[in-house]
Amino acid sequence: MAKAKLRYPEEIPFRLSGFDWIIKFIDIETENFGITDTDKKIIHIYYRDKDDQNVLETLLHELAHATLFDLGTAIFHFDSDKAYDKEENLILLTSPRIFAIIRDNPKLAEFILKRIKEL
After folding, report:
1. Over its length of 119 residues, how does the chain's per-residue pLDDT go in tens digits?
2. What sections of 1-119 are H helices per DSSP?
3. Within 13 A of 79's CA, how many CA atoms are on the CB side?
4. Cα dihedral across residues 104, 63, 34, 5: positive or negative
5. Which pTM does this prediction carry?
6. Residue ranges of the domains in the chain?
């Protein structure tokens, strides 16, 4: 008995490192399995005529791209002879995580701001 083909939702919103992202499942024929747009925070998964295992592996593959998009620049575009690059790359690694802490934890952010105002 053949397995029934899984149905995919049109979109799945999710949050990654404090940013709002959308996964779009698209039923078109293409050579691509998926594409991640880090500027628009959208992952496209193309599933027409694709095996369900491949679709799910593609989703994980594209999620890995999304997870590493800001880390890759800091790690792979690094000139160790330039002090500026060292600092800039450290900021590239740190600032998205600080943003995520503040956005994902509004009570913590309120607490910190309140305490700063009291100083």
Report:
1. 555 566 899 999 999 888 999 999 999 999 999 999 999 999 999 999 998 889 999 999 999 888 888 777 777 766 667 666 777 777 778 888 888 888 898 998 998 889 888 88
2. 52-76, 83-104, 106-118
3. 5
4. negative
5. 0.71
6. 11-69, 73-118
